[in-house]
């Protein structure tokens, strides 16, 4: 027709594909007023062509349904309608008519606007996840094949249950694909400076919402998950003089990763002293004590406090599980200069591979030494990781913490099923 715009010779003519952001990035608009995308860039699958010497932005052909990317633009109430890009008409319409068309589209009633549906699990028959940019599904235990359609039976079905990967939150994020949009331009902060002040502000707002920690008068230190921050805290709390070495101790049962953090670097400033030690070693000027405490504890879930207090002792309070879906949150923790409080994104929102954790320190000297450790060990936490954590935390705060209600309900239902099994 007179309004159609012909493609260049050899160009694909299939149906318009859904937007497909590379990796974890998205440039979809967000419904939350507190979450803002960081920059914008063309979506994967877009190509810049020429029609009558005018540039046109168009989406490439759609892949088969089983291999469709995670984010799909659907009309409400249907799973088949696709949104074509209005810009494809602009080269064939007068500027005035195109402007009127775009204005009419922008005033489309809310009920008929496109919505975002995350089909990551649906594309794998509910038995796995298909992530953007990947050609095959990542299958759950006891399923295999490109679309996870083959169920393993008998001895071939092996369920790996020794990992703490927090898939608890997967359904929450599948239902909210617009909740934490992220788009990073290639030019965004390509230098070494990795500080993201807005993330620190989001962390403080989060603790204010939950009420589990005092942040006023505390410094925030961001690291690559709790694992790095545990080692950084041991370094920061250990003696600075060469003739002293701190003992690192934790009351059993304790998190198995503590020993690795205390022994991996073979530091002269501290050494592991908890093997076969049911009580803490004495704390002296020549041999100060650093106690590692998880509260609520892993693996038994009990609330804990430091066992030792005194001028030659300090503590690292690991609060990875101090969130409303794991435990009742009492008065906010507020520690003195000899204690570092640790928190992590993984146990709160499930984003374990983002590798973001933070410490709250009341002593600027301790915070400074922790930052020195992080800077020396890893040159800081990658900005892209921090931006994803920022988008997620701003959603949590902006939604009033609805993720905690979701996760607590899921945990309660699982506990009821366990009780019924062992009744």
What would you note in describing this structure?
The protein is of the alpha/beta class and 423 residues long. Helix content is 25%, strand content 15%. The chain contains nine helices and 15 strands. The strands form five sheets. A seven-stranded mixed β-sheet has the order 9-15-14-13-12-10-11. A two-stranded antiparallel sheet has the order 1-2. A hairpin with a 2-residue loop joins strand 1 (46-51) and strand 2 (54-59). Helix 3 (197-210) runs parallel beside helix 8 and helix 4 (225-237) packs across helix 7 (364-378). The protein is globular. The termini are far apart.
- Helix-strand pattern: EEEHEEEEEHHEHEHEEEEHEHHH
Strand order of the largest sheet: 9-15-14-13-12-10-11
Number of helices: 9
Mean pLDDT: 78
Task: Give the biggest beta sheet.
Answer: 7 strands, mixed
Number of strand elements: 15
Into which percent range does the helicity of residues fall?
A: 25-40%
**Rg (C-alpha, Å):** 26 Å
Low-confidence stretches: 1-108
Class from helix and strand fractions: alpha/beta
β-strand percent reads 5-15%
Multimeric status of the protein = single chain
N-to-C terminal Cα separation, in Å?
71 Å
The rough form would be described as globular
């Amino acid at each position: 027709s007179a309004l159609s715009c012909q493609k260049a010779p050899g160009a694909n003519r299939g149906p318009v594909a859904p937007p497909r952001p590379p990796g974890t990035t998205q440039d979809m608009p967000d419904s939350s007023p507190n979450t803002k995308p960081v920059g914008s860039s063309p979506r994967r699958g877009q190509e810049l062509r020429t029609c009558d010497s005018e540039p046109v932005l168009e989406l490439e052909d759609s892949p088969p349904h089983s291999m469709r990317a995670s984010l799909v633009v659907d009309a409400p109430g249907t799973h088949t309608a696709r949104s074509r890009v209005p810009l494809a008409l602009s080269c064939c319409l007068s500027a005035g008519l195109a402007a009127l068309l775009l204005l009419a589209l922008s005033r489309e009633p809310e009920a008929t606007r496109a919505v975002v549906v995350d089909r990551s699990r649906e594309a794998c028959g509910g038995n796995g996840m298909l992530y953007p940019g990947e050609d095959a599904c990542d299958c759950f235990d006891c399923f295999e094949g490109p679309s996870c359609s083959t169920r393993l039976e008998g001895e071939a079905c092996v369920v790996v249950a020794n990992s703490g990967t927090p898939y608890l939150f997967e359904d929450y994020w599948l239902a909210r694909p617009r909740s934490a949009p992220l788009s990073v331009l290639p030019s965004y902060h390509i230098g070494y400076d990795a500080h993201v002040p807005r993330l620190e502000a989001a962390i403080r707002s989060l603790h204010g919402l939950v009420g589990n920690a005092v942040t006023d008068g505390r410094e925030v230190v961001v690291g690559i998950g709790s694992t790095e921050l545990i080692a950084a805290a041991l370094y920061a709390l250990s003696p600075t003089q060469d003739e002293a070495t701190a003992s690192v101790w934790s009351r059993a049962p304790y998190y198995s990763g503590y020993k690795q953090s205390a022994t991996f670097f073979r530091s002269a400033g501290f050494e592991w002293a908890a093997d076969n030690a049911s009580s803490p070693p004495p704390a002296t000027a020549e041999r100060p004590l650093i106690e590692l405490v998880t509260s609520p504890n892993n693996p038994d879930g009990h609330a804990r406090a430091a066992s030792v207090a005194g001028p030659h002792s300090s503590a690292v309070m690991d609060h990875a599980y101090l969130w409303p879906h794991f435990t009742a949150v009492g008065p906010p923790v507020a520690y003195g200069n000899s204690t570092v409080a640790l928190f992590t994104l993984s146990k709160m929102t499930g984003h374990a591979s983002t590798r973001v954790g933070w410490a709250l320190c009341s002593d600027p000297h301790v915070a400074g030494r922790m930052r020195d450790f992080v800077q020396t060990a890893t040159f800081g936490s990658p900005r892209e990781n921090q931006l994803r954590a920022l988008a997620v935390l701003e959603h949590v705060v902006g939604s009033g913490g609805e993720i905690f209600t979701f996760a607590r309900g899921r945990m309660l239902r699982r506990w009821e099923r366990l009780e019924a099994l062992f009744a």
